[in-house]
Amino acid sequence: MLESHDPDWAAKFDDRTDRLRELERRMGDGLPDPDLLREYDNIAGAQRLAFDASHRTAQEYIDLHLSLTLREADLDGIWAWYPRLPASADLDATRAVVREVNGWVTAVKHNREMREVCQRAGITPDPTSLRSLPRLSWRTHFARLRWRLGRAKRLRRYQSHQES
């Protein structure tokens, strides 16, 4: 169980949501007071912490925070892994793993877009315009290789079925 888990998280989250609505109402349409903005930022941060406290295990945290990233990567044809952490993992390790996967997908998307733009312009991409990919463990590299090999095998199987 994550040390940040709080069974009372929903009540705290709702309380902070109500407080944020009240502050938004007080701010109105005019230029807000700096003290109100500071209070708003503090309450919004506390609301995020209350929401993070809803996750009992590292895997629940990963499930929620990576679901959209992994779906988007899959639609774009980008390989991304679903990290597994031991049940004893703390919140910092969990956040680091989520950041690593998000960083990987973002870097691959950026590099693809830069290569496409450079190809349309008829130039070679400058190495400084490409993002370096995060270093992966050998197990992650092996999983990526298996995914690629399996994908090629699936594509060959689909092509052979279409020909016959």
Keywords:
single chain; 164 residues; mainly alpha; extended
Topology:
Blueprint: H1 9-27, H2 34-52, H3 58-75, H4 91-121, H5 138-163
Helix pairs in contact: 1-2, 3-4
Overall structural class, as computed from helix and strand content, comes to: mainly alpha
Could you tell me how far the N terminus lies from the C terminus, measured between alpha carbons in angstroms? 53 Å
Q: Biggest β-sheet: count, sense, barrel? A: none
Number of helices: 5
- C-alpha Rg (nearest Å): 22 Å
Low-confidence stretches: none
Overall tally of structural domains = 3
Any overview of this molecule?
- The protein has 164 residues and is an all-alpha fold.
- It has three domains: 9-52; 58-133; 136-164.
- The protein is 69% helix and 0% strand.
- The protein has five helices and no strands.
- The chain has helices at residues 9-27, 34-52, 58-75, 91-121, 138-163.
- Helix 3 (58-75) runs parallel beside helix 4.
- The longest helix is centred in the middle third of the chain and has 31 residues, at 91-121.
- The termini are far apart.
- The model has no long low-confidence stretch (mean pLDDT 81).
The gist of it:
This protein has 164 residues and is mainly alpha-helical. It has three domains: 9-52; 58-133; 136-164.
